């Protein structure tokens, strides 16, 4: 009874304190998320250059984007990067995770080796890979020469620069996806595998018929994250190629960066940002939809 | 990946034939071989970086490549420190990272406490709104945020990097999930003793949330230490630069001196590697949590 009579003043106090506790995060949220989000939508309808007073131009920026060859190209370059990194990167990570999930010795050491690139700075490792890809003295071409194979000019060629960035990015990201897959694998009960073993299913069949279906949610999730982050690739491009040669590695964020901070076309860059946002949103929704349909079946 | 085993493990000690044991041993050996090759290939870029950073120009460009330099040229690092203020870059990065860690932990744990423990109007709607924004890419808000910084006259200051980084939807999410798992009995006992909400937050919730706070701290450390785009946009003065931006600028002026470039890359990543050696578990947990949010 005593507690109940206390409750009314407590709940008012509770609400009051709750607002005190959330006020810093809500303030930051309003200033650095809600405001910029709406401001950049507004900017995308202006010809803001950061110096003169911005004028309202309606859908001009968006119309201009449709015929901007460099923008269209940057979309294709980004799609190329995504198709190059995501399927191979996720597939390799899944295989490594399944192997490292086995009860064998030294898994911690192996896991660390795969995880190390994840924690290191992209700027630093991109610098290292730039040296590895050096056409005349790089380690990779020295290795290829040793095998008597063709030595590509890598970052110096518009044909090879993107594959070089893709390989490096797969190396960098494999450990991240591996950790997510390992977490998913922990959720599969070992008794399912035991039962399949007794039924005479070999390793490969267990992988295809148990691991892959039961990891579907994790895989979907890894795919979504991988696609979102691959649409936002920037650091390695900036360090390794600066978008070149011949704009062959000018991914969309790099193009936005150039427009916003080098050409000072802030309105135009904001419109690009929103187009990219829309693309990411649609891709995520489509993926979620596909996974839901599979649930019904 | 393991060999098909023929013996059914029903009895406690199955009779293992010599042949089955040999097959199993061979499979294991192959697996380890595969993993060793894989691990070494993953490590090769790092090994090559260290090796290159200690070479002179002749060894650097030698064909075939030399893995272990005859004389380890530690003076390459001395050269680095003489030609760019790496000590200052290091201090700048450390300062920014520490302030962001402490600040974000305070802001996010306060918010997470209210969102997980206190009842108030609009709580779930607000939390959902915050959670939705984790999906929004940084570049969408980048330009208006830059304008805010410009109007505050914060361009070319560390404030432009620190202040926006204090508010993290992911931090709120991670801590809230953990706070929900803390038993309510401790709180109720404290409440009956007449403890105020701030005291409960400080004396009951925070001490019980140390693993989650550590995980978030490590996660922030990794993100802030390695951040490149924000320093690139905001910082111009050499004396204000962070390690990643310092390395990028150094590269602009020393393109072909790869021994120095590799020394620089090592300087940038060494601190995080040291922390990783001691707190590996929290790095992995942070990544796992970041995979759980949506």
TrEMBL record, chain B:
UniProt keyword annotations, A-Z: Cell membrane, Membrane, Transmembrane, Transmembrane helix, Transport
InterPro entries, sorted: MetI-like, MetI-like_sf
TM regions (residue ranges): 29-50, 96-115, 127-149, 161-179, 200-222, 260-284
GO BP term, pick one: transmembrane transport
PROSITE patterns listed in its UniProt record: ABC_TM1 (PS50928)
Domain ABC transmembrane type-1: 90-279
GO CC term, one of those recorded: plasma membrane
Membrane topology, record value: Multi-pass membrane protein
Locations listed in the record: Cell membrane
Superkingdom: Bacteria
Family statement: Belongs to the binding-protein-dependent transport system permease family.
Protein name per UniProt: Carbohydrate ABC transporter permease
Organism of provenance: Paenibacillus roseus
